[in-house]
Design a protein that fits this description.
This protein has 748 residues and is an alpha+beta fold. 31% of the residues lie in helices and 28% in strands.
Amino acid sequence: MKPESKKYITNVGGRPLTFETGKLAAQAGGAVTVQFGDTVVFAAATMGNEPRMGQDFFPLTVEYEERMYAGGRIPGSFFRREGRPGTDAILVSRLTDRPLRPLFNQAIRNEVQVIMFSLSADLENPLDVLAINAASAALMISDIPWGGPVGAVRVGRIGGEFILNPTYSQIEESDLDLRIAGTSDAILMVECGSDEIDEEAMVSALLFGHQAIQTIVETQLQMAKEIGKAKREVQLFTLDEAIAEKVYNRAASDVDEAIESNRGKHEQQAALDTLRDSVVVEYTDPEDLEQVAAYKDAFEETLKRVVRSRILDQHKRPDGRNLTEIRPIWCEVGISPRAHGSGLFTRGETQVLTLATLGTPKEAQEIDTLSPNDSKRYMHHYNFPPYSTGEVKRMGGQSRREIGHGALAERALVPVIPAESEFPYTLRLVSEVLASNGSSSMASVCGSTLALMDTGVPIKAPVAGVAMGLIKEGDNYVVLTDIQGAEDHLGDMDFKVAGTTAGITALQMDIKIKGITAEIMREALAQAKVARLSILDQMLDVIPVPRPELRSFVPRISTMKVPVDKIGAIIGPGGKMIRALQEETNTKIDIDDDGTVYIAATDGKNEAIVRDRISALTESAQIGRIYTGKVVRVADFGAFVQILPGIDGMVHISQLDTERVEKVEDVVKMGDELTVMVTAIDENGKIRLSRQAVLEGWTPEEALEHDKGGKNGGGRPRGGGDRRGGDRGGRPHSGSGNRGGDRGGNRR
């Protein structure tokens, strides 16, 4: 029997947001679709029946899968099916995980799995915030114990006015792209990119977004009340209070002393490890592994209480700084002799080296996603190797964390990257984390700015970033500037803020408590601004402005415009012409469909040769102009002369000489050079030439009067003059004759 579905509709920005359940995935703990426009996301939430024994954390997994059929597309992979999650899918998974996780009881050991996928994509409405709402609703109607619901919206700003859930086209116009999730009382997650927006405007955007969340939260509460399952009773693996108190009384003062006496990360950790081991030995039987684990957990709880108390009550941080103090900073540029640019940024015990590479437009990254953007010209990649924390781990592919941090740093710098029309390069930045003790993502923002300036990229303004923290107990709280690893691990918030002197370019907030207020965020932003300006000052002491010129070995990219119908002449049959030109001149040539030609050369002479050759290949014959060309064919009535690459015209026998010519071969033969004048071009492109006009000094009109061939014959463009070397398929062109992908979308 067909199941009955139930719909719940609320309003977001004047448009319906629809939750539907009951029709799909009946065996999941909870399953929901969320629709906005014609974009639909499915989410299912399920909990394992038994706790996962032997682990000390809550096992939550959140996975988003991008299905290309949602947009009526076939995946571009070799297998023509979705494989490993792409960058966008991973970022949506992280975006959804972050507001869900704090609302679970962390003492749960039953595995919880939330799986989402795109069901429909209209290429107008983004999927990411819909995924958060779908996941929250699925949890609310399931039997999984959870402290939600969570609502999520996107906020844009056009012409100074905030808009809710903007379309892709509106996002392009907007100077703000803010994604916010929270409960009815507090904000849980923020992810934002913006064009140097000031702090007060950002707070207003956050309040605007949080207000819009309310109706989404109310709708989910209604769903839970009307159709939600009873929440399951699960075993909670909590710390034994008696053991916790015993260890605290025994070790708290020693922990305080160890922190006070050791300021370095490794020295402090070694002292704490020694103390922990002595407490465990003192109170436990080493053969009783369960008891050992319990006392280790109790020691970690003691450490947390001591560190938080020192900060909250005494304003004393683990490394001895005050609440607003930034760790010592030093910077350097030009670390790599051959990289196009490099910047080293060190803050305390965190160090990041960013290296920049410039490429041609054809090297932009092609994107196979459900967004309307199909390429991007600016990329930031972030690597976090095990040695950066003094550890030994298996090396593999990029982690979700690395992808997320890379995307954040990229977002922070997008607003200052020059437009392609001003700086026609593809840019790739790679941040290598060499040492980490907190805030490596913001260090990569700073290192990237240094690298771009060292490269000579004319960025609009330098960008710096800082991570803010929070310690909160009840109504008592403190905001920390430039948090290190221990403060991130034991604190309640990791709030990353990047920007220029003029304003904010990126935000990201992760919290471990059940939300924070707008007041706390306002204070954190104000504190972050002071820190950001100080960091920028220290960076600019090393390199105050971008270098005026690129390094000698960096390709110089220049542009020229050619008629669209001449592109084939440049490429030649099968790309033969352009490949030969690139090999001869040691350059890279890239051609867009609009006729824009990009020339990448490290030698000015070779660039000039390319320009001259392309100009010659794309030149059109002009009436009255004199050309010197080669005879390419001889007929009884005249000779055909190639006056331009791929273009020839006919000299009638009557126009070959100043005297009467009985036989064409008496004057010219194949391969001879002739200087001729273009006297006429008819509607079919046939070109009339005259040698006599040159010899006699005639005008084109006079030449036509003496032209006994009349309109009986003439030449026309040949070969590549109006033909394409291969099927262009509506795509841009390069040295291979085709860039190999549709690149007609937006480049960032």
